[in-house]
Amino acid sequence: MLTGLLGTTLGIAMMSGAQAQTRTEPPAPSQAPAAVGTNGAAAQAAATPGTAGATTQAVAPTTAAQGGAQTTAQTTAQTTAQTTAQTTAQTTAKGTSQAAAALPAMTIHGGRSAYQAEFVHSDQFTQPILDMAQSVSVIPKKVLDEQQAQSLQDILRNVPGITFTSGEGNLGWGDMFTIRGFSSEQSFTVDGIRDAGLASRMDTFDTESVEVFKGTGTIESGVAAPGGSVNLVTKEAHLGDAYHLQGSLGSASYRRVTADLNKQLGDNTALRLNLMRHTNDVDGRAVTHYDRWGVAGSLAMGLGTPTTVTIDYLHQHDDNVPDGGIPIQRGTGGAPMPGVARNAWYGDPNLYTDRAETNRVTVKVAHDVNDNVHLSNITRWEQTDRVTVLSPARFNSTAGTSLGYLGSGPLITSGSGALSYSGFAPAPIAGGQAVLRGNNFGTAKRYDILANETNLNLAFDTGHVHHDVVAGAEFYHERYGDLTSVVDGPAFNPVMSLANPYGTSMGSVPTLEGGAGDYAAVNDGGVYLRDTVTLTPKWIVDGAIRYDRFSVRQVNGAAGAHTVQRSNDGAWSGRAGLTYKPVPYGSLYASYSQATQPSAVGGTTNNVIYGDTTSQSVKPATAKTWEVGTKWDLFERRLSLTGALFRTELSDSWDYGDSTTTVVRELPPKRVDGIELGLSGNLTEKWTAFAGFAGMRGRITKGANAGARPGNVPNATFNLWTSYQLTPKLALSYGVQYVGTRRYTDNAYVGGQNNNSSTVNGPNGKHPVYVADNEKAPAFWLHSLAARYEVDKHLTLSLNVQNLFNKFYYSAIGASLDGYQIYGVPGAGRTVILSADLKF
Fold first, then answer.
1. Are 351 and 382 in contact (CB under 8 A)?
2. C-beta atoms surrounding 429 within 10 Å
3. Where are the alpha helices (DSSP H) in 361-475?
């Protein structure tokens, strides 16, 4: 498979490269991060974020003494149908001195596509994405704007191999998703700083782009990110004045207003302000409602000088009525239970809520010591308060048994003669009534983080070998605890009609969530070192290592009567990669990465979320990823093609429990093998595309569930967003997403509770009988259309139609821990949004 993939890609690359590629150094991107000796803020000082257009760039050679890290001040006049003239100070690529020295100065016509990214926004990575021995997907602002993507779920639909899930209580972490089949809700950073906040990332008003790093995380994540990690790049102030206002109206009471205002203050200072107000219901769903507002400010000083200081602030307030989904009947291929409508909403709208308030302050300092030495530091404080009352749609029959089963026993003989539980036919429900398992699902929590990260970038030569070195240290203090506030939670499990659940009251029990004074604090100190060694213009070796030391303190009970438990863990992580460049615009690579994650980090914080009074500790989880791949920048580097084969293994793994007795559940080892393909950029001058495909095969490798396909690992995912400039004023876009079938849990057997024991209990908790669980959520295709019309240079009108054919599908799936009950959150139906953009 790899031979065929590489052969096909090489053939295409050679044909296009023979006509279009005549250089080893890539043209400078419209928004490149800092090279060594180049202040990132200074390099982007004059750049107004937008669409890259046709560019003429003079590229001067560097010398070996300069270490391939010199920068060239460039002034680029760019004019496209969608953007105004921009003046851009850009960094040249972080190429090698040996390759650059052999080239004469030349002029390149044509710039990178706005659908492409050349670098990631982190001082921890010194090479262009083309030369990195790792799969990286960058969703640029251009794609986000065209799609009207507003939430993290909207954004990550553009990345193959990512799916969303729903916890048993839908509580705890805000966004629950998997990358390459592995849980990744804690594998999240904002501008490179860890963000494991409790709130969902519901809006993109302060987001410039999104970066997804595939494979086991090492120096970029700090703790094990088995399948990868996500980094949000926020908007920052830049030189030049730019004002952007947008207003949107749509179906399901969709209303949205945003403002992005940037003002230059003096020669080297700028201020940027982003504002957002948003409200909407959900097409095809009853009761569910989202209401939020936010403000974000950025003050940058010293732009265009060796030293810059940037101060950012974010405040966002969310007040939502969440969606617990609908119950799914086993044995139907994912159909809702009898009598359940597509828009059915189960719960009490007077009680169910998801309120969050986030404040975040970030200070960034960057200094160019000289052309080969760059120092940067980022400090962040963030606090999130979240109050949530919600239960997923899990039902018992009125007799008290799990709905979907005829009872908890005795064993019966199936048609094949095998012992089984009759769980594949609807249970008798008197008058269509059922009992919602919803009592006591309420939390009121506060999350704080204080983090500091320092990076030292060095570029130097040892003989004919060039080194790009990153040495860094990171510290963060996280605190998870109760809010001192009263939350009204459900008082009992109500009996309600599956067909007409509205008007049901669940009573209320005021719960003083903060009175006990429970909290958990996590301190992490990490140090790391990376060396990217350019042996020759064709061979690059990359090695990175990181060590983290965790200290965890858990406090239960009020002052004077509380108990204190402590835990300490250490974790090593590292990556090694080899890149071969047969031509300057292409690369072949192989890499290996490994990391561990102590259970104390996740388990202790989860104890506080669910109110546990005991401590559990299991062996640290270990993740390993092997990957081989290829990357090509074709057609004058305006189109990027990528392909990779990977294997990720996770052993000694654990998951979060939802009760006081099972806070950390040991899970059996599992493995995911897969292939990924990607495309981004310009196919022609007028035609752009952003696409990806992932095929995955997962298996539980040991224990009672050995051989089972892990939960939430689709066999295939595919995404495409493509736009065509039909006339100078009119552009049309089409999008499609495919998600294949996926299991609801890791269980091979109903009642297994995802465990690794030699016997698996049946529904009554007594019979060690294996009851096969073969349920899968149905695959689905989603289609979208968009049109944009430029009225004049200031005003653009756009129309977006999402889920064009009103497809019924589950955007997130879940199951009770015992696996008896499965449920899904239906995605939005056909949604129409009309927007007006004003730029001046």
1. no
2. 19
3. none
Q: Cα–Cα distance between 6 and 55 in angstroms, integer?
A: 31
**Same domain (yes/no): 117, 187:** no
DSSP 394: -
Instruction: Tell which of 111, 129, 147 closes a domain.
Output: 129
Of the listed ranges 106-120, 140-154, 164-178, 697-711, the least confidently predicted one is 164-178
Domain co-membership, 263 together with 387: yes
Task: Provide DSSP, 197-223.
Answer: -SS-----TTEEEEEEEESS--TTTSS
> Do 514 and 375 reside in the same domain of the chain?
yes
> In terms of pLDDT, which residue wins out, 635 or 657?
635
How far CA 409 is from CA of 406, 422, 763, 815, in Å, comes to 8, 9, 7, 21
- What's 558's domain CATH number? 2.40.170.20
* CA 342 to mean position of chain CA atoms: 28
| Residue 644, domain member (yes or no) | yes
Contact 211, 143 (CB under 8 A): no
* Residue at a domain's end among 87, 103, 129: 129
Q: Considering only CA atoms, which of 613, 624, 557 is closest in space to residue 591? A: 624
What does the H/E/C string look like for 491-532?
A: CCCCEEECCCCCCCCCCCEEEECCCCCCEEEEEEEEEEEEEE
Distance CA 692, CA 500 (A): 41
Quick one: 444 and 557 in the same domain?
yes
H-run or E-run covering 4: helix 2-20
- Sign, Cα dihedral of 194, 196, 197, 200: positive
Helix (H, G, I), strand (E, B) or coil at 155: helix
For residue 439, what pLDDT is reported? 65
Are 685 and 728 in contact by the 8 Å Cβ rule? The answer is no
Same domain, 207 and 125: no
Residues 563 and 673 in one domain: yes
Q: Is the pLDDT of residue 425 over 80?
A: no
Please, is 724 exposed, middle or buried when counting C-beta atoms within 10 Å of its C-beta (0-12, 13-18, 19+)? middle
Global confidence as pTM: 0.83
User: Which residue type is seen at 789?
Assistant: Y
Q: Which residue has the higher pLDDT, 13 or 206?
A: 206
Neighbours of 3 (CB within 10 A): 7
Q: Give whole-number Cα distances, 278 to 245, 512, 635, in Å.
A: 14, 31, 40
What's the pLDDT score for residue 664?
A: 56
Same-domain status, 253 and 371: yes
Query: What's residue 618's pLDDT?
Result: 61
The domain total for the chain is 2
What is the rounded distance in angstroms from the CA atom of residue 49 to the CA atom of residue 121? 14
3-state DSSP assignment of residue 798: strand
Domain that holds residue 806: 182-411+422-839
Note whether residue 166 is domain-resident. Answer: no
Phi and psi of 215, rounded to 5°? Answer: 95, 165
How many CB atoms are located within 10 Å of the residue 353 CB? 17
Residue 815: both structure tokens together: 């199951």
Does residue 345 sit within a domain?
A: yes
Indicate left, alpha or beta for 231 from its phi (over 0: left) and psi (-120 to 50: alpha).
beta
Share of the chain above pLDDT 90, in %: 49
Integer CA distances (angstroms), 172 to 200, 226, 480, 595, in order: 10, 20, 11, 24
Residue 524 belongs to a domain: yes
CB count, 10 Å around CB of 443?
A: 23
pLDDT, mean of residues 760-770:
42
Q: What would the DSSP string read from start to end of 465-481?
A: EEEEEEEEEEEEEEEEE
If asked whether residues 109 and 218 sit together in one domain, one would say no
Nearest in space to 179 (alpha carbons), one of 593, 650, 713 = 713
- The Cβ of residue 300 has, within 10 Å, a number of other Cβ atoms equal to 27
Residues 96, 55 contacting (CB under 8 angstroms) = no
| Confidence class for position 15, pLDDT limits 50, 70, 90 | very low
Q: Alpha carbon of 745 to those of 68, 503, 754: distances in Å?
A: 50, 32, 7
